[in-house]
Amino acid sequence: xxxxxxxxxxxxxxxxxxxxxxxxxxxxxxxxxxxxxxxxxxxxxxxxxxxxxxxxxxxxxxxxxxxxxxxxxxxxxxxxxxxxxxxxxxxxxxxxxxx
Length: 99
What we know:
The protein is an all-alpha fold.
């Protein structure tokens, strides 16, 4: 079976599989909240910045950025510590769209 994907989608698919394995390995509801909040917040920012900005970026770049932040930053036990990955996603997406 030959997948005909461009390099960005191929890398995003690799990170999706890697994130799924990492989530399954350290299974807990905290991991799912961490993944959902990081990826969800990044996609919401992507939609907001695409609407506000004149630049049109690829959504797969946002998915890759969010998954890298998900894999690098450990999930937080408290809700207050969950702000750090969201702040990292906010800064990464803002820099990507406006700088």
